[in-house]
């Protein structure tokens, strides 16, 4: 006689099925993964799978909802933990890397299959959640621009896209890169903070690191105070560049 499943076995079995399904979704894509393949991965009959999940879409929904719930929660914690825009931006990046570490398959599925899932009414709530977390980034960027912590020429919506898309892409290649997520986060933060802050701003260093002195203010590279321009009633002019320097500058593409 077959042994009846005890109460503790039920959630464990369900979690195993979802984990195997997530791995298949991440490798093959949602549309290309069949219920039979998922059943084979956990060594059960395809029909038995419906005892645990009503459909393949329910598995995808549960997988992505879990990741999105953590993302929303950790983003909110990052925003509430800091009052200044720059540390808050650092916290948002850290929260995103936490989600990548905790939900790698879900992040891969969301990134690759979002266009397909967006056509299904069941997943409309994911778009709503995405808009909510997007607003936390946009609000942080706008606050930083208003406070003078971030460059005034930044377009928050574009910066949000430029930052988050490559951030999520790291889920697909960080293992083959030979670098840990912690190392990627440190590198990413260095690029982000250098890019969004004014050229004369001092970027707060990560814990245990000494921030570099900003260029263009205070002391120069020799450690001496920069010479101030005396007011003589005439406009001061900068030293002329050589013709070669002018030609090089003219050929440099804009950012």
From TrEMBL:
Residues 11-71 form the HTH tetR-type domain. The keyword Transcription applies. Keywords: DNA-binding, Repressor, Transcription, Transcription regulation. It holds the Pfam family TetR_C_24. InterPro entries: Homeodomain-like_sf, HTH-type_TetR-like_transc_reg, HTH_TetR, KstR2_TetR_C, Tet_transcr_reg_TetR-rel_C_sf. Residues 219-239 have a biased composition (Low complexity). This is TetR/AcrR family transcriptional regulator.
């Amino acid at each position: 006689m077959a042994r009846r499943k005890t109460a503790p076995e039920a959630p464990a079995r369900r979690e195993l099925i979802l984990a195997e399904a997530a791995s298949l979704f991440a490798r093959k894509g949602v549309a290309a993964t069949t219920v039979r393949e998922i059943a084979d991965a956990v060594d059960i009959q395809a029909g038995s799978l419906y005892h645990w999940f009503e459909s393949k879409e329910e598995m995808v929904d549960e997988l992505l909802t879990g990741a999105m719930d953590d993302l929303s929660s950790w983003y909110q914690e990052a925003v509430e933990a800091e009052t200044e825009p720059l540390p808050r931006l650092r916290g948002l990046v850290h929260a995103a890397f936490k989600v990548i570490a905790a939900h790698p398959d879900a992040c891969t599925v969301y990134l690759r299959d979002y266009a397909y899932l967006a056509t299904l009414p069941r997943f409309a709530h994911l778009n709503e959640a995405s808009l909510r977390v997007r607003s936390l980034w946009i609000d942080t960027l706008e606050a930083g621009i208003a406070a003078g912590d971030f460059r005034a020429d930044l377009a928050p919506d574009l910066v949000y896209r430029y930052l988050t898309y490559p951030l999520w892409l790291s889920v697909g290649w960080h293992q083959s890169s030979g670098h840990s997520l912690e190392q990627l986060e440190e590198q990413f933060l260095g690029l982000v903070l250098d890019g969004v802050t004014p050229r004369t701003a001092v970027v707060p260093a990560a814990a245990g690191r000494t921030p570099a002195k900003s260029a263009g203010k205070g002391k120069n590279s020799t450690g001496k105070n920069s010479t101030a321009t005396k007011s003589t009633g005439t406009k001061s002019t900068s030293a002329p560049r050589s013709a070669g320097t002018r030609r090089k500058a003219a050929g440099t593409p804009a950012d």
